[in-house]
Amino acid sequence: MYIAPWGIKKILNWVAHRYHNPAIYVTENGLDDENLATKSLEEFLNDTERIKFYQDHLSSVIDAIREGTNVRGYFAWSLLDNFEWSNGYSKRFGLIY
Q1: How far apart are the C-alpha atoms of 12 and 26, rounded to whole Å?
Q2: What is residue 90's predicted lDDT score, i.e. its pLDDT?
Q3: Is 94 exposed, middle or buried, given 0-12, 13-18 or 19+ CB atoms closer than 10 A?
Q4: DSSP characters over 56-82
Q5: Mean pLDDT across 43-52
Q6: Quick check: 4 and 29 in contact, CB under 8 A?
Q7: Statement: residue 20 has pLDDT above 90
Q8: Can you give the C-alpha Rg of the chain in angstroms?
Q9: C-alpha distances out from residue 42 to 38, 45, 52, 92, Å
Q10: pTM of the model
Q11: What would the mean pLDDT of 30-49 be, rounded to a whole number?
């Protein structure tokens, strides 16, 4: 998987231009992580990769807003981990461990 924060700005600006700047709500954006038994609790709690992901993506959303895109909401994926049909609990993506 590639992490490309510039991509969210690009798609937000494209939607704004293509569809006459509608109200846009980003309803799911986030990062999954392997639920590895080898990671300690401290490593899971010191989640620097997820923090950087959200800092970079939110910065790109703010840039799109400053350029005039009508972003009204941004929702992280997800508050809590849940059971994924294809992966069970092997992927972690919640903001809360």
Answers
A1: 9
A2: 63
A3: middle
A4: HHHHHHHHHHHTT--EEEEEES-SB--
A5: 84
A6: no
A7: yes
A8: 15
A9: 12, 5, 17, 15
A10: 0.81
A11: 79
